[in-house]
Structures are given as C-alpha cells and as structure tokens.
Amino acid sequence: VQLVESGGGSVEAGGSPKLSCAASGSSISDYQMAWFRQAPGKGREGVAYLDNNGGTDYTYSVAGRFTISKDNTQNILYLQMNSLKPGDTAMYYCSATSPANYDAWGPGTQVAVSS
After folding, report:
1. For residues 6 and 93, what is the distance between their CA atoms, to the nearest angstrom?
2. pLDDT by residue (tens digit) across 16-35?
C-alpha cells in the first residue's frame, strides 16, 4: 500500500484542521492504521491508533482533542485535530500495518501551530 498525507499547514492555536491520508495499491479495510508525529529535535511518537475492528487509542497529550477515523470506501484515513496547541507542531505521518505485519509510511505533512 502507498500512503500520501495532506491537510497540514500553518494554523493558529485553537484551530481545528483535518489531516487526510490517501491510500492506494491496496484496501486499508483490514489494516491497522495510525498517525505518528515528529517534532523538531525529537523522536517520532505515536499519536492515534485505529485497529481493524474500529478500536481507537490516543496518546495522553491528544486524547479528547484528536479523532482518528477512516473511510474504507474512499480508502482514506483521517485525523481531526481540535484545540491545537503550539506543542502540536510537528511533521505528521500516517502508517498502515498489514495483516502480515508489513508497515507502510507516508512522506508526512507539516503542521505548524502559532500562538
């Protein structure tokens, strides 16, 4: 599967952008999907997870503000981000893990939050 993220950009604190991750080459309906982010000078961290049964999980810092979802018909993964903070500034990546545990990553989309 190939992944391409979009929807990033410069946002003011408190904003609510929605990231998209378009998948091609394979249906993501059976994949475990996730959003990761990497802030400048820091390691990559998992932000939101969506398993193939619809279960979700979030890292503590975004729980209650971010929502992960997917549209199996359109083959797109989403990340709705609300109440953004400057600390959310990072490159955001989507990932897909196949039933055979093969991982695919997109090139990322930058989100910059200004106070």
Report:
1. 10
2. 999 999 999 999 999 999 99
